[in-house]
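Figure 3 (text version): structure tokens given as input.
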């Protein structure tokens, strides 16, 4: 951060005299996604305890509320956001294999698709006011879901609100869409007309197929090489086109490094017990960690903007630039449907 930036109160992750390289640009983008996932996880009780609205929370407050050591699902949530925003930002290492999987899942529907689109779902996010309206509104007016290759495809706007009810919706969803409530992303063509449901897991062993789900996205594993391939479930009744992202030299390596940087910054600002001492971010990750720690008193929305800008910098020797990815309105501004109830004044009964 330059002296002028400091005086103006601006958040800057990149010095103009030292442009970042391709990996650095991508690291900033993934860091932004992980921080948004942390904000996504804040409960109404967290906001009540912190006495703040979601849009006003600082990085230090977010760090205090974070539960990285106890909440093992946080890494997976961050992975979902990172994949979604990588698609929205047109990150080639993610977009290319996912587009290939879409064309394998439905060759006719995506034959002419060049730039896939992504809608973040997850039935647990239906608690946000405006979330379902935003998901349905982002799709085309006559949008459909492609649960399989048979018959007339179901209408997107009719069935997504049903899927948002979670497992309880299965009797209504019927045989073709039975497991669509497990969708993490809806992937579509440029017109957002035809959608396929994708499930994302940061651990390949947890990947599950089911009616309505067409694509799985996981990191590379010892028994699952990088690329796109079809995998049946154990009973061979359902399957998925599985996109396996390269690790450690591909997108998964970037994600793990950025996650380590954010986790270290969260541990410092929130005064949490450190994680595994042998797991540390790279020198590039440490530089991101140190920058985040210096912005502990700043609002998370401002830090996100700074990271978003850092990911768009002109790069030396790089022909493509990422598209900026703004946070969805419901993430910071959409309040939960339940009202925030402040704790009553303590009152003790007489003992005699």
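Below: residues designed for each position.
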């Amino acid at each position: 951060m330059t002296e002028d930036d400091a005086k103006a109160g601006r958040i800057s992750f990149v010095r103009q005299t030292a442009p970042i390289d391709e990996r650095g640009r991508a690291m900033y983008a993934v860091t932004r996604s992980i921080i948004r996932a942390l904000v996504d996880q804040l409960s109404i009780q967290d906001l009540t305890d912190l006495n703040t609205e979601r849009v006003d929370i600082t990085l230090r407050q977010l760090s205090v509320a974070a539960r990285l050591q106890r909440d093992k699902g946080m890494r997976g949530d961050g992975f979902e956001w990172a994949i979604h925003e990588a698609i929205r930002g047109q990150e080639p290492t993610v977009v290319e294999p996912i587009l290939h999987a879409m064309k394998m899942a439905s060759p006719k529907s995506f034959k002419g698709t060049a730039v896939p689109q992504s809608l973040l779902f997850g039935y647990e996010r239906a608690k946000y006011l405006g979330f379902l309206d935003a998901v349905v509104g982002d799709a085309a007016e006559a949008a459909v879901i492609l649960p399989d290759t048979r018959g007339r495809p179901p209408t997107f706007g009719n069935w997504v609100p049903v899927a948002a009810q979670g497992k309880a919706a299965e009797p209504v969803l019927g045989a073709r869409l039975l497991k669509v409530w497990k969708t993490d992303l809806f992937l579509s063509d440029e017109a957002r007309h035809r959608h396929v449901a994708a499930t994302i897991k940061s651990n390949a062993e947890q990947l599950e197929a089911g009616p309505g789900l067409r694509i799985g996205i996981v990191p590379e594993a010892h028994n699952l090489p990088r690329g796109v391939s079809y995998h049946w479930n154990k009973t061979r009744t359902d399957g998925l086109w599985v996109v396996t992202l390269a690790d450690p030299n591909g997108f998964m390596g970037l994600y793990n490094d950025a996650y380590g940087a954010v986790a270290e910054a969260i541990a410092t600002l929130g005064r949490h017990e450190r994680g595994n001492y042998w797991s540390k971010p790279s020198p590039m990750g440490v530089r991101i960690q140190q920058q985040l720690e210096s912005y502990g008193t700043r609002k998370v929305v401002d830090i996100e903007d700074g990271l978003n800008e850092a990911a768009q910098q002109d790069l030396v020797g790089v022909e493509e630039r990422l598209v900026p990815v703004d946070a969805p309105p419901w993430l910071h501004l959409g309040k939960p449907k339940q009202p925030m109830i402040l704790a009553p004044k303590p009152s003790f009964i007489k003992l005699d």
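The chain is about 40% helix and 10% strand.
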